[in-house]
Amino acid sequence: MTIASHYAGWLTLTVWRKKTTLLIIVFLLVIAIFGIHYNSRNEASESQDDSEIARVTNMQDKRSLLGGSSVQFIKSASVATVSSLNNMVINDTPSREDIMKQRSIVDDNRINEVHVFSKTPYIPKARLLHLDLKGAPPKVSYVKKIFHLSKSLGATGVLLEWEDMFPWSGSLSSLAAANAYSKTEVSEILLAAKENDLEVIPLIQTFGHVEFALKHDHFNHLREVPDSAQALCPSLNASIEFVQHMIEQIMEIHNESKYIHIGCDEVFQMGECSRCRIQSRENLFLGHVSKVATIVKSLYKNVIPIIWDDMLRHLALSNLEQYHIGDLVEPMVWVYAEDVYRFVQYSVWDKYAAVFPRVWAASAFKGAFGETLYVPNVKRHLENNLRWLEVMSNEGLKFKNGFQGIVITGWQRYDHFSVLCELLPAAIPSLAVTMVTTTHGYLNSSIRTKLNTYLGCGVFGPTTFFNLNTDPFLWDSYSRCTFPGHAFFKLTYRFNNAEKEAKELIEMIRKQKGWMTEYNVRHNFSTPLRIEELMQEHSRIYHSMTSLGRVARESLSDIFDFYTIGEWVEQNIYPYVSELEEIQRDAMALKARHIWPKRPFPVLKDLQKLGIQTSEESAGDTLPPG
């Protein structure tokens, strides 16, 4: 017993002293056993693992579609791939098919999993260019060139939004602007579309955005809100009569059109007058749309009305069914931002599919990202169109007859009262990129030669495909091409640089430096030496800006009338010219003084409204009124 106890104690002490070594040995044995077990299972599960990878990758692609900044590019015409916008260089990105070919195991059990990677690009069957003509009509000769170019790019039709550029007559004659097209010119435009095999869909506003009519004294009694020309009152019989007269005049000249777009978007003012207030907004909207659509269908049996969809998105399914709206119109779902699903959720698509047999989509190539922009961001517009192709592919099967097509919109003004945004010639590269993308269902370097040809680039076209991260406006890529309006597109690049210099100079003189601020000018107090320093770059920048005015006239004279040219120059170039001339006058006045008064200077009397004492006599009367 004593020997056994002694031996046990010795063994315990030895193990305790060697515990670190023993633990390491045990740990290594466990790793070895686990490795043998893992290897024995690896071959048996390899096929299942690859299938799971395919499913996970597919889910990641879907998440990227919903929330990420991704753009679809493809290498072959049968397989699509998604590439990050952060690395948005258009090139031969490896396709999903190429990646799958590199996998070592492919068997019949994985066909269904591989199928999600082999989806063919979605190509809308109808691809329309939208021309917003309000307040700035391109010359007919230029419109013809755009129709020819659009057809080459893959367009199948054109959506013409006439507004005040249509030659309204009779009781509607006051709606036509002084520089509106004549009936002969409209017929010439429609003939040009026909010669290019472009289907024409006319667009007139019949509810909201009727400013071009309601602004006039003759029609202001039709307003929903007396002080606003934005929307018609749908409760007035006279409103319906007015709309019918517009439809009749439009369809008289568009007598071959199978569709008419009746607008009905952004009805901001509805249910506000005493007549409309007793009804729900849902009934007011759907009731008016039903009346207008019924007019179209009763007068023109084979013409289908289209409406913008935004006012439908938040209406209940029961409301839409109550008015049988799916039998009366086809909705055109418009989203110009990159994330389409953010604005039209899955539930909205399900609702639309339950009501409408088919649907349209509307993207944009200009006029969507800022009311005063003068050149479109092609990177954003391309992303918008690529996302739409994904959405159309995903949602089209929900509808009995799918998507009828897509309209790539090109807004010229945000509404009738807004100033010009991007002019059409400044947006031709954006139109080309977005239209050719929707025509092929993808965009990559294989299309480079086609784009160069369409845009008249010749040997001056980009030898490598464009990088939209460094060239989002495509100035570097296409400024030396000869597409219709190329001279003005190139001018926007020059103006961008001149504008930056002018802004920096004005900011430096008026805000950053202390010798030509408004205070200095108001009190005529500065030093000529400092004035000379501040004005060193003024002459060069001023002449650069004024020369752009002349170049604008020359580059636009074959495209627009002098009214439109004058408006664009007044809006964009003239403010800088005017500000720079005022700075020049101030500099001359400040330099002319050589004797200066002692301080303090008189306090500006207008400061009294801010509660500031302006003189010793006003010490007791410094509080602002109220």
Write the layout of secondary structure elements.
Blueprint: H1 2-17, H2 19-67, E1 70-73, E2 81-84, H3 96-101, H4 111-115, E3 127-132, H5 140-153, E4 157-161, H6 183-195, E5 199-203, H7 211-214, H8 237-253, E6 259-261, H9 281-299, E7 304-308, H10 317-322, E8 330-334, H11 340-343, H12 346-355, E9 359-366, H13 378-395, E10 403-410, H14 428-440, H15 448-454, H16 475-478, H17 486-512, H18 518-523, H19 528-534, H20 538-556, H21 562-572, H22 574-592
Parallel strand pairs: 3-4, 3-10, 4-5, 6-7, 7-8, 8-9, 9-10
Antiparallel strand pairs: 1-2
Helix pairs in contact: 5-6, 8-9, 13-14, 17-20, 17-22, 19-22, 20-21, 20-22
Description:
- The protein is an alpha/beta fold and 626 residues long.
- Helices cover 47% and strands 8% of the residues.
- The protein has 22 helices and 10 strands.
- The strands form 2 sheets. Strands 5-4-3-10-9-8-7-6 form an 8-stranded parallel beta sheet. It has a two-stranded antiparallel sheet with strand order 1-2.
- Helix 10 links the parallel strand 7 (304-308) and strand 8 (330-334).
- Helix 17 runs antiparallel to helix 20.
- The termini are far apart.
- Residues 1-8 and 38-118 have low confidence and may be disordered.
